[in-house]
Amino acid sequence: MKPIIQARALIKRYGTFVAVAGVDFEVAPGECFGLLGPNGAGKTTTVHMVSCVLPITDGDIQIAGLSARNEPRRIKAMMGVCPQESNLDTDFSVLHNLVAYARYFDIPTPEAKRRAEALVDRFRLRDKAAQCVDDLSGGLRKRLLVARAMVNNPAIIMLDEPTTGLDPQSKHQIWDEVRAMKQAGTTVILTTHYMEEASLLCDRLIIMDQGRIIESGTPRGLIEKHAAGEGTLEDVFLKLTGKELRE
Amino acid sequence: MTLLLNISYRAWHVWRRNLDVSRFSWKTTILPPLLEPMLYIVAFGLGVGAYVAQVGYRGRMTDYLTFLAPGMIALGVLSHAIFECMYGSFVRMRYQRTFDAMLCTPLLIEDILAGEILWGATKGLFAGMAVLSVISVWGLAVFPSSLLILPTAVISGLLFAAFGLLFASISPYIENLNLPTFFFINPMFFFSGTFFPIDDLPRWLKALAMLLPLTHTVDLMRAAAYGILEARLWVSVAYLAILTPIVCYAAIFLMKRRLIK
After folding, report:
1. Residue range of the domain that includes B103
2. Buried (b) or exposed (e) across B69-103, using 16+ Cβ within 10 A?
3. Number of structural domains chain B divides into
4. Which of A54, B194, B209, B254 is deepest in the core (most CB within 10 A)?
5. A151 CB near a chain B CB, below 8 Å?
6. pLDDT category of residue A246 using cuts at 50, 70 and 90
């Protein structure tokens, strides 16, 4: 199948600092694709370039046949992004966060309201719909961020550490949502520090370190290759990236 | 130039977002602009006005309140447009991360910044119209020439909103915004012919005053309110019409450079 995302020799430099140092990968439609790596590995930078919020220094990304360099609007229109840290609109209620966000996608207000109501139910935020987002717990905020990323019915959804800092209940709920997205045929890009999460959700993954891809494959395949079929993805990760602290 | 070509109708989505915030908090966003000029008119017009018999403007003597009123429209436009895009935009950019969220939608940074300027200008226009209504009821503005105050408020609103965004774009921290307030806004507040005519100022001070954009806004508004439209006013029109696109461009350019690395 033709890949929906194709990154070729992707480079991101800030002055002399190289955040992403030549990365190649492909994602098939409907796949859940994981980006793993220690802090500072270049995962989020890569995700930001794919979602067209960060200019590419060198190389290119093709998304559904469109170049991220030339067609950022059309690419962003088919993408949903759940950021690592909340950027929910603190001036608005839970419901209006969804309505206002939908309008940025040119969705007319009545349709935006219909979608917001549906997402509030789906993500079990009904009780909180009228509340200001400042009053939400971390778990609820993450749920709302994931819901917001779906408001434009995206073909690709980017989840940047969607379960960091969540209690087990919230974490499982987000996992269920990711499975539902995959079921619906949505392509999912997931960055995470949790190897269990990557093992459970990702069809394929890459492990990045210092701006490069150091390994790629299926979770099972990587365990076979690097941990002789025993142990966990975490053993593989530590074997490949070492145990010293990064930051 | 691509900077300007990247601005699309989507800027109105940003404008609409800010309008929603105002609608949800109208008691704090709509009442003060209506009440603030009343405060000035009462304090200066009636208070100071009691000690000032007549004020001259373009050879015409009027009472102090009549002189003051158009200046208060200009101040309303200035303060609401510029503070919205200095502090409001800074908070949305830095603390609320509103721009970050918008960037993950089909909006480009140019749409977002153009939307911010349009919104600042809208607030300025609204404040100006609020003062104009009050002073019209008071009988301090001549019609229909006073209707020319509205286009003046629109272009001045765009200009001051763009100045606000420009200052926000070059301020590392929100505290730094005190500097343009002190060195740019406060001098305009006093020396733009708002509270007293600049004609009688020492020549060097008058020359400086003529450089301040608000001087031209005030002059146009006062001429419209008095109903004495003269050819010399085209200089002020040209000044605002040339400066506004330059400052808009500079603000969007610098803010983009700050945000998109």
Report:
1. 2-259
2. bbbbbbbbbbbbbbbbbbbbbbebbeebbbbbbbb
3. 1
4. B194
5. no
6. low
